[in-house]
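Issue 218. Parser rejects a valid record. Input:
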Amino acid sequence: MEPVAVDGGTAAALLAALRERGWTVATAESLTGGQVAARLVDVPGASRALRGGVVAYATDAKAEVLGVDATLLAAHGAVHPEVARQMAERVRPLLRADVGLSTTGVAGPEQQDGNSPGTVHVAVATPAGTVVRTLALTGDRAAIRTATCDAVLREALAAVSAAPAGEDPGTPGAATALWRS
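Output the parser choked on:
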């Protein structure tokens, strides 16, 4: 059954799909700085599915708080699809959630670690697996951050909606990697 958004928004539809399955969600955000969690919190009744969020803006915070591999961060920096995958997968057990969402990238205006503004990676970790999407966004800093929130919420809605209702979420964090670009 397709979830129907009460207010027409993706965040509301995602929360409805999560509640239908008895699942919870947590966010691990970098360039969006908490905007994904804020979008979810804007929906009445969000507390029935949202466990919380981590804003790990600094590279070392990604390792120290979320447990992202420090060797990976040293070799590739924070703007990398594997970093997004690890953020989404590791926020699940950290906040005891069934689904983890993550955002990492460059909002601009300067490059970061050799990546141009608009280079973004989002990930969604569910009991069925992890999807990572690489985006090449355009616009100013605010537009890139907004488009990133939109993208991770759409990806999460698709992933959660694809899972059968009533599926046992299993152990948070026990996901496998599925790559999409």
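Fixed in the parser; the record now loads. Confidence is low (pLDDT under 50) at residues 1-8, 173-181.
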